[in-house]
Write a structure and sequence with these properties.
Elements: E1 16-20, H1 25-36, E2 40-45, H2 48-60, E3 64-69, H3 75-89, E4 94-97, H4 112-139, E5 143-148, H5 161-181, E6 186-193, H6 199-206, H7 211-220, H8 230-241, E7 252-255
Parallel strand pairs: 1-2, 1-4, 2-3, 4-5, 5-6, 6-7
This protein binds nicotinamide-adenine-dinucleotide.
Nicotinamide-adenine-dinucleotide binds next to helix 1 and helix 6.
């Protein structure tokens, strides 16, 4: 595993990228890696302080990054996000639809409002970003859309009803985008992480009545017997964002310590 100190190889040189939910966890690791590999990174999030700090950190390290506030559940903001990339850089090469929210609740305990909130961010946000990104990508010969689904978009588990529904939707929305736009040079692929040690998972662990036991249980859901690290997902994003993956169209990349292989 990389410790993040190996030499960058410019795998994304010259590319303009948007990473939604870029201020934290997997998104943060992806922004850092993309910048290191030569991309211009637009860090998108609702956490402005964290997002701005990350963009500043990337710039201080010699990378190209800026922060843009956007709530992925709000149509006008998502449209403005893509327009911003077009107006500022004249292009968009990579879109990582990573922002998401989750709830551990089963159907019977999930309110309609909570269901709508999760679907709005996790599915409608991906749909809207894709809707506006595709024409911009096509203008410059294509691009790569990387949608972060989940192992929970492939298999069921107790609870997490709305989250499962949302991540399953992202999985097939990705394939729809992929087959529709393959000949436009726009590729779409999904990534399906297992349990990864990020603030999202930490919150679930820390609010459990028995955090230690819960963490061990979650780690053991994966044959590898540990939680993933954000960087381990970011490397998958890097591959799918780069031209190295140009024959990958509508594929599903599981990065999950073996969770769905069982
Ligand atoms: N951590 C895991 O175990 C795990 C497992 C499978 C899939 N995933 C997926 O990976 C992705 C990243 O998750 P993470 O664990 O890094 O979570 P995280 O909570 O650390 O990061 C998610 C980011 O999304 C942002 N966000 C939330 N709502 C938003 C909105 N409406 N508009 C814009 N930004 C918004 C948050 O502010 C946060 O910065 C998500 O799609 C998640 O479903 C995570």
């Amino acid at each position: 595993m990389s410790d993040g100190t190996e030499k960058p190889r410019g795998r994304l040189s010259g590319k303009v990228s948007i990473v939604t939910g870029g201020a934290s966890g997997i998104g943060e690791a992806t922004c850092l890696l993309f910048a290191r590999e030569g991309a211009t990174v637009i860090v998108v999030d609702i956490q402005s302080d964290k997002g701005q700090a990350l963009a500043a950190r990337i710039r201080e390290g010699g990378g190209k990054a800026e922060f843009l506030h956007c709530d992925m559940a709000v149509h006008a903001q998502v449209k403005a996000m893509i327009e911003y990339a077009g107006n500022t850089y004249g292009r968009l090469d990579v879109l990582v639809n990573n922002a998401a929210v989750e709830s551990p609740l089963a159907e019977v305990d999930t309110t309609e409002e909570e269901y709508d909130r999760i679907m709005d961010v996790n599915v409608k946000g991906v749909f809207l970003a894709t809707k506006y990104a595709v024409p911009l990508m096509k203008r410059n010969g294509g691009g790569s859309i990387v949608n972060i689904s989940s192992a929970y978009g492939m298999i069921g588990s107790p609870g997490f009803a709305a989250y499962h529904a949302s991540k399953g939707a992202v999985r097939l929305l990705t394939k729809s985008t992929a087959v529709t736009h393959a000949r436009d040079g726009v590729r779409a692929n999904s990534i399906h992480p297992g349990a990864v040690d990020t603030p999202l998972l930490r919150e679930a662990i820390n609010t459990n009545p028995d955090p230690q036991r819960f963490e061990t249980t979650v780690a053991n859901m994966q044959p590898i017997g540990r939680l993933g690290r954000p960087e381990e997902i970011a490397y998958g994003c890097l591959y799918l964002a780069s031209d190295e993956s140009k024959f990958c169209v509508g594929s599903e990349l599981s990065i999950d310590g073996g969770m769905v292989a069982q």
